[in-house]
Amino acid sequence: MSVVLSVFAVAQLAAALSASGPPARHVVRATAPSARVTVDSARSVVVVSVGPVTIPASVPYDQHVGPAPIDIEWPVSGWIRGFRIDVVDSSGRVLPRELLHHAGIVNADRRQLVSPAAERLIAAGRETDAVLLPKSMGVPLNRGSRLLVYFALVNPTYAEIAGAMLRIEVAWMPEGAAGPRDVLPFALDAYPVLGAASTFDAPPGRSEQRREFTLPVGGHLRALGGHLHDYGVELRLEDVASGAVLARIAATRTADGRVTEMSRTRFLLKRRGLRLDADRLYRIVGVYDNPTGSTIHGAMAGLVGVFTPDDVRRWPALDRSDPEYRADHAWLLNQESTHGSHDHM
């Protein structure tokens, strides 16, 4: 795994539907895809394998396919330090990256910082590199934690692909006396919708989607990335009172507006990262530039990163009776293979 602090949250990365297109009509053919979780203590890696699935021929990016989320139980206590997500064949050979639309893991036993929804622990799209945190930082996770694995695939070829598997390799540090500093995923949508996909319309021309928020506990952002769909330009994190731009995540685009990569920052000029205060008003801004002349449906704009709270004990407690948590959890469980979008990648 390369030392890249990109999208370390299941969330949000960032990996979702493309900027436009009709609902998917394809169905993944699989005989009860199952999840297998193994612990490789020699490499300090937990491997989660899900499948097999058969990807029909000619499945475009805006009509991705995948099974409903699958429950797994986390096998070890300690800290997650990174991950790598691949699509592989029946022999374990890595298949082309273009087959992956999005994939991730939701931690149903912990909530997000800003939202009462379940924590998006790991997430990746086709643009996401492997992620590895420094040894001084880790995301705490206990043995027995209940997790949901989700993914969707595409197939730009004219040939059916049989026996495909999703493989997630998670780097971890076992529980011990001298553990790393606790960091937690930071996920934030410019247009949050719980119980449905967090998508919005992008009108013709340049437009902005904005959302203001506060944090229940202060701390430092150690790394930040983001997710935009095609025709996305940039994401900004702003201080509302001063108007200052605290971070800017830019999209790398092709000449026709297709997003191929998102920049990321590790705040190298700030010793502990970017300081965010509790109860101070901040703003996320997602910028699109739509040249098509028609409104694009299904746009997304999300920031994702690694957050070190001042006091992890002040992290909001999970409330399974919260209507927003229940709506989000029910929506996650009902994601079927023919769904045309997926939130929080």
Short précis:
This protein has one helix at 323-333; strands at 34-40, 45-55, 70-73, 78-88, 100-111, 118-125, 131-132, 137-141, 146-153, 161-174, 181-182, 184-189, 200-202, 205-213, 219-228, 232-239, 245-253, 259-262, 274-276, 282-290, 296-299, 301-309. With 345 residues, the chain is mainly β. Strands 1, 2, 4, 7, 8, 10 and 11 form a seven-stranded mixed beta sheet that branches.
Q: Could you please describe the fold and organization of this structure?
A:
The structure is a single chain. The protein is mainly β. It folds into 2 domains: about 35-180, Jelly Rolls (Sandwich), CATH 2.60.120.230; about 185-335, Jelly Rolls (Sandwich). It has one helix at about 325-335; strands at about 35-40, 45-55, 70-75, 80-90, 100-110, 120-125, 130, 135-140, 145-155, 160-175, 180, 185-190, 200, 205-215, 220-230, 230-240, 245-255, 260, 275, 280-290, 295-300, 300-310. Strands 1, 2, 4, 7, 8, 10 and 11 form a 7-stranded mixed sheet that branches. A hairpin with a 5-residue loop joins β17 (about 245-255) and β18 (about 260). The longest helix is centred in the C-terminal third of the chain and has 11 residues, at about 325-335. The two termini are about 20 Å apart.
Features:
2 domains, single chain, disordered C terminus, globular, 1 helix, disordered N terminus, Jelly Rolls, mainly beta, five-stranded antiparallel sheet
Average the pLDDT over all residues and give the rounded result: 85
CATH class of the largest domain: Mainly Beta
Q: What's the number of helices?
A: 1
C-alpha Rg (nearest Å): 19 Å
Sheet with most strands: 7 strands, mixed
What letter string, H or E per element, gives the SSE order? EEEEEEEEEEEEEEEEEEEEEEH
Q: What is the number of strand segments?
A: 22
Q: Between the first and last Cα atoms, what is the distance in angstroms?
A: 20 Å
Q: What structural category do the secondary elements indicate?
A: mainly beta
Number of domains: 2
Estimated helix fraction: under 10%
Q: CATH fold name of the largest domain, please?
A: Jelly Rolls
Q: Give the low-confidence spans.
A: 1-31, 337-345
Report the principal-axis shape: globular
Based on the coordinates given, report the CATH architecture of the largest domain. Answer: Sandwich
Q: Estimate the strand proportion.
A: over 45%
